[in-house]
Structures are given as C-alpha cells and as structure tokens.
Write a structure and sequence with these properties.
Blueprint lengths: L3 H43 L5 H6 L12 H8 L6 H23 L6 H7 L7 H4 L1 H4 L3 H17 L3 H18 L7 H11 L5 H24 L5 H7 L20 H10 L4 H11 L1 H9 L7 H15 L1 H4 L3 H20 L12 H16 L1 E3 L10 E3 L1 H5 L11
Antiparallel strand pairs: 1-2
C-alpha cells in the first residue's frame, strides 16, 4: 500500500513546485524585456542629439513654461552634475524597466494567455522595441504612470488616498508629457469599479473630482501661453534644433485649431491603421471573452466609456497614429485587466503538451507576422511585415495588404 505520509508530502510539494515554476516564468519574461530595453536605451544614447526624439526630450523651460518641458529642464539644470544625454536616457530607461516589472511581477500579465499576447503584441509590449524612434519618445512616462496608478489602486485600502495618489502620479507624468492626461479617466474608472460598494455620495464626488482634474489638466495644455522657441534652441546651442522651428519645436505653440488642421493635412492611410488597431485589440478582445464583466455598474461604466473616448482623442490632433493607437489600446487593456485580475477563478484543467504547443505557436505568429510603425506618410500603409516575413525575405518597409 502507498505510504499516506508520502502521499501528503506529494500533495504539499506539488503546489509549491507550481508556484516556483510560475515565479521562474515571470522572472524569465522580465529578464528578456529588461535586456531588450537596455539594448534599445543604448541605441537612443548613441543617437544623441540628432533625432526628432531628442528634439522632444530636450524641450525645457528656458523659453517659458511649456508642456512636456519638465525632463528637459531637469537635464538643463543638472548638466554640471550629469550629462543631459545620460540623465534623459536613464529616465526613459527607468520608466520602461519600472513598467515591465509592474506588468510582469505585480499585475502578473504572463499568468494568462491574453496577458502574454499583450506583452508580445507589436502594438503592445513590443511596440517601443520594434520602433526605435518610438522608444525615444515620452510615451514611456505615460505607460509608467498608468502602471503605477493601477498598482496603487490595486494595493491601497483607502479610496480617498488612492484617488489623490493617482492624481499626483498623473500630474508629474503630464508635466513630462501632456498626453498622459488623456488616459487618466480609464484609471479613474478602475478606481470606481474597485470601490463600487462605497457610499454613492463619495463615488459621485470622486467621479466629479476626476472629471474636473482631467479637464483642468487638458485646459492647461490647450491654453498654455506661447513660448520662445528660439530661447529653447539656444539653451542647447541649437543641437538638436537647427532652427527655432525644427523638430519638436515646430508644434509647441500650436493651439487646438492649428493641431487639428495639421492632423487633417497629414491624415494617414486609414485602412492600414484600422487593420493595425484591430490586430492590436485582439488581446483585449480575448480578455473580454474569457472574463466578461459580471455587472455593469452605471457610474464606473460611464467613466470607462468617457475614458475610451479620451484615450482615442489624440488621434484627432496628431499624425503619428501608431503611437496613439498603442497607448489607447494599452491603457484600455490594463484597465480591464486590473478590474478582472483578482476575481476568483475556477480551477483550470492542467494544460496538455499539445495545448502548450498550440499556444506557443499562436503567440509566435501574432508577435512576428505584423508590425505597425509609429508614423507613416499618407500614401503608404503603416501595417508592415513582421520579423517572420523579414526572415523570409520581405522588406520591413513593404506594407501588408491594406
């Protein structure tokens, strides 16, 4: 007869072994992302200062208070202590490294197939790695703000502290890059969903506070006074600015009307971006199918719907749609993930070897067959072949159908 003590020991060690394997998987995925991000950061450092990315990263306050100028001002003020290039690259790298750790170790995306699909999406976790020009933009701080705010909402036990904390996080992110404020309503929707059982008066007040905060921040962006772009260029001895209207300086003084007119004049190939958006949304669609909403609480649902509109709004006034499709889908996916992450799950059947092989193949195909570029000229599609097609001989600049 089998020894009962040995059977009990086996029952105890099996869950421990499963936890160990899950931890090893999480750490392996994190190590892969950190390695790729460090390599991308070295590429950004070597490109200093002659790229559009650097013209945005070095915008400072020397011509007056300006949106997205906080990082450049810090680099300008501290250049006697640390080189501007090193400070900026370290800040961008830290934002990506923090975000990866939060997504993988705290929000634990690799534990579900939809989470892995998002991490390996060319318009999700892989986007800044596949687009070096996008890696050097300030989208890193938007992602870090969303991840930090969702981690706070998930861990904080006092809703008032969570609300104030998320506002503080996005205030700093918005001073680094003003587009961060467009994604705050989705975080507010997660907060309201988490505390759906608190007093109605508090929840209505929190929703009103979040709306006032978002509108106030966006008004600051749209109504900010004009700045002296020549003074900004001169503060860096005109590098990377060959004049006071090149690079990111060209758009600093745009009002809403000018931004809208410029976006219409450079309207991209809509079919290519639409197909890319559908592919980018597949992890979110899969997550919704596997974990549908249990109860549509009216207030949180309304704020979430407004948050989706807010997240999509930058597409109206910008030309580099690849970046903003990625940011909108990322914010929406992480918000929904945070709402469903801690639900009790039915015990899943142990996966078979065949099932694991099929999932791995699907992940590999999704990650390697397509890519969306952060910006494309109107006469070309932004949806291009992925790594697999390039290995088979297709050009990375050849658009896919559409």
């Amino acid at each position: 007869m089998p020894d009962p003590a040995m059977a009990r020991d086996a029952m105890v060690t099996r869950p421990a072994r499963a936890r160990l394997l899950r931890t090893a998987l999480l750490l392996a995925v994190l190590a892969a992302f950190w390695t790729a991000q460090v390599v991308a950061a070295r590429g950004l450092l070597h490109a200093y200062p002659w790229t559009w990315s650097w013209s945005e990263l070095l915008v400072d306050y020397q011509g007056g208070f300006v949106k997205r100028g906080l990082l450049g001002e810090a680099a300008f003020r501290l250049q006697g202590v640390i080189s501007p290039a090193r400070l900026v690259v370290d800040a961008v790298s830290a934002a990506y490294l923090f975000s990866s750790a939060g997504l993988i170790l705290v929000l634990r995306l690799p534990e579900r197939f939809a989470g892995l699909l998002f991490l390996l999406s060319p318009a999700g976790g892989l986007f800044p790695l596949l687009n070096p020009a996008a890696f050097g933009r300030k989208d890193a701080f938007v992602l870090a703000a969303v991840v930090a705010a969702l981690m706070l909402v998930r861990s904080c036990r006092r809703p008032g502290v969570a609300l104030a904390g998320t506002m503080a996080i996005f205030l700093v992110a918005g001073l680094l890059v003003e587009i961060a404020w467009f994604y705050y309503p989705l975080v507010a929707a997660v907060l309201l969903a988490r505390w759906r059982d608190t007093a109605v008066r508090w929840r209505l007040g929190a929703a009103a506070a979040a709306a006032a905060y978002t509108l106030g921040c966006l008004a600051l962006t749209l109504l900010a006074p004009k700045v002296d772009t020549a003074a900004i260029a001169a503060s860096w001895d005109h590098a990377p600015f060959t004049s006071d209207s090149t690079g990111a300086l060209c758009c600093l003084n745009f009002g809403f009307g000018q931004a809208l007119a410029t976006a219409r004049a450079t309207l991209p190939n809509l079919r290519g971006y639409a197909l890319a958006a559908l592919l980018a949304a597949l992890p979110l669609a899969l997550l919704g199918l596997r974990h549908p909403p249990r109860r549509l609480e009216p207030l949180a649902t309304t704020v979430a719907a407004l948050g989706l509109v807010s997240a999509a709004f930058p597409l109206v006034v910008t030309a580099d749609w690849g970046r903003y499709i990625t940011l909108a889908v990322t914010a929406a996916f992480l918000a929904y993930w945070s709402v469903t992450r801690d639900r009790p799950q039915a015990a899943a059947p142990r996966p078979t070897l065949e099932g694991l092989v099929v999932r791995a193949a699907l992940l590999a195909l999704y990650a390697s067959t397509w890519q969306v570029v952060h910006f494309q000229f109107p006469d070309r599609s932004a949806l291009i072949p992925g790594l697999l097609f390039r290995l088979l001989g297709a050009s990375g600049l050849t658009p896919l159908p559409g």
